[in-house]
Amino acid sequence: MKTILDEQQVRDGVQKMARQIHETYGDDPLTIIGVMTGSLVLLADLIRLLTMPLRVGVVQARSYRGATTTAGQLTLNTDLLPDVAGRHVLLVDDIFDTGQTLLSLVKHFDTLGSTSVRSAVLLRKHGRQAVRLQPDFVAFEIPDEFVVGYGLDYQDEYRNLPYIGALEPADLVAESRS
Ligand code: 5GP
Ligand code: MG
């Protein structure tokens, strides 16, 4: 495994993103929605850097993919969602790849009567986007490699690595990812 972003770089990037979020929302109350499970670590670090009145919820988005990189059908589980009507919502996800996941989520939240819906991601993969939507906050641009750590998994492992690493192609077997 090759390190793409070490622990200190990740920390600096998350702090910078928190400052940008403060610049956008000021002291307005904010509802942060983490997209499970990949955003778990980012969510925990980010919310502790935010000082406005904050609510936190999670949503699970699962896309089934085959060996190809095209996005599959997206399934949303919104059981753990707080009431977001009349609130500023910030969706937090681990990585913006094709953008399908975030696009579907933003569309869903647009129907729930939120005052605003924005999105923040730790990583944006270069040259992969297939939608017009762009996240409002991005901590890092990365090359088109399969990355793990800081919440991101490969076959449900590696989420606990405190840094972001890229798996070598030889380590990857054709498998669904979510
Ligand atoms: P999108 O819908 O933007 O194509 O994909 C977003 C989701 O795909 C992410 O939330 C993540 O679960 C998964 N994904 C995309 N690229 C990677 C990657 O390089 N590593 C890991 N672990 N997951 C990825
Ligand atoms: Mg995900």
Structure, explained:
With 178 residues, the protein is of the alpha/beta class. The chain has one domain (2-177): Rossmann fold (3-Layer(aba) Sandwich). It has helices spanning 7-25, 40-47, 100-110; strands at 2-5, 30-36, 54-63, 74-77, 88-96, 116-125, 137-142, 147-148, 164-166. The strands form two sheets. It has a six-stranded mixed β-sheet with strand order 4-3-2-5-6-7, sandwiched between helices. It has a three-stranded antiparallel β-sheet with strand order 1-9-8. α2 links the parallel β2 and β3 (54-63). α1 packs across α2 (40-47).
Give the names of the bound compounds: guanosine-5'-monophosphate, magnesium ion
Hey, roughly how much beta strand do the residues contain?
A: 25-35%
Structural class: alpha/beta
Radius of gyration: 16 Å
Quickly name the level 1 CATH class.
Alpha Beta
Strands, total number? 9
- The helix/strand order is EHEHEEEHEEEE
User: Could you report the average pLDDT, rounded to the nearest whole number?
Assistant: 91
